[in-house]
Amino acid sequence: MIEEPPILTLRPNFPRPTADQIAAFQDVPTGFVCDAMGGQGALESRIQPIGGGRDIDCRAVGPALVADNGPQEILATMGALHILKPGDIVVSAVHGHRNCSAAGDQFCGMLKNKGAAGFVTDGEMRDYDGIVETGLPAWCTGLSPNSPYSNGPAKVGFGAVVGGVNIESGDLIVADRNGVVIVPFAEIDTVIARLRHVQKLEADLEEKVAAGFCQMPAIEEMIADGRAVVVE
User: Which residues are annotated as a binding site?
Assistant: First the structure.
């Protein structure tokens, strides 16, 4: 390059969801949120609760604070700690790099101390027992004891592609044991409105199943009108 980029670029003042918008997704299963977005929105399934969620109650809702590190890097994540606001969920983008930790127990402890609601990465993590002690909900692709570097260049407060989804800082993250779902900032209110409808449908179906319901009316209709056939 003719001119080298800054080692670290920080953007602390991106739009964030309101407290009411965040509250609308509290204790809502990620599956419901995906249904309210046409069945989409989740990161790749390889990004899972650390340890399968067996030792940490991995549930979190909050604004994404995207740290675009690049492979085998952690400088952006360090910068994210500097501008983090309580309730943020730090998203460490390492571009899917494997065999290197994106964060460990001490860093998770500092995130917890500053009020982070969770940590998401498309890379691996380390120091499992120590992370469990912090209690910080975290999602990653596995474990690796290898160390990252902090050379940059790195950007914080912008966006990155993580787990096949473009995430912008300020998008809403809803995460639980099933995975991580991204609600784009501009669509939050629309998804909330749809979510109420999904919740009603789910509640009605749950009540019917509990009472013994075991039918698939759509299949019966397909057989009746010839779209499906039953053969001996």
Answer: 126-127
3-state SS, one letter per residue, for 135-198: CCCEEECCECCCCCECCCCEEECCEEEECCEEEECCCEEEEECCEEEEECHHHHHHHHHHHHHH
Q: What is the Cα–Cα distance from 175 to 103, expressed in whole angstroms?
A: 18
Go through 26-58 and write b for each residue having 16 or more CB atoms within 10 A of its CB, e for each that does not.
Answer: eebbbbbbbbbbeeebbbeeebbbbbebeebeb
Residues with Cβ within 8 Å of 2's Cβ and at least 6 positions away in sequence, in order, are none
Domains of the chain: 8-185 (3.50.30.40)
Query: In whole angstroms, what is the distance from residue 84 CA to residue 223 CA?
Result: 56
* Mean pLDDT, residues 152-175 taken together: 97
Amino acid at 179: G
Give binding residues for Mg(2+) as ranges.
127
Specify the pTM: 0.91
**What sign has the CA pseudo-torsion 135, 104, 110, 69?**
negative
Annotated binding-site ranges for substrate: 126
* 78 Cβ contact list (under 8 Å, min separation 6): 150
Q: What is the mean pLDDT of the chain?
A: 93
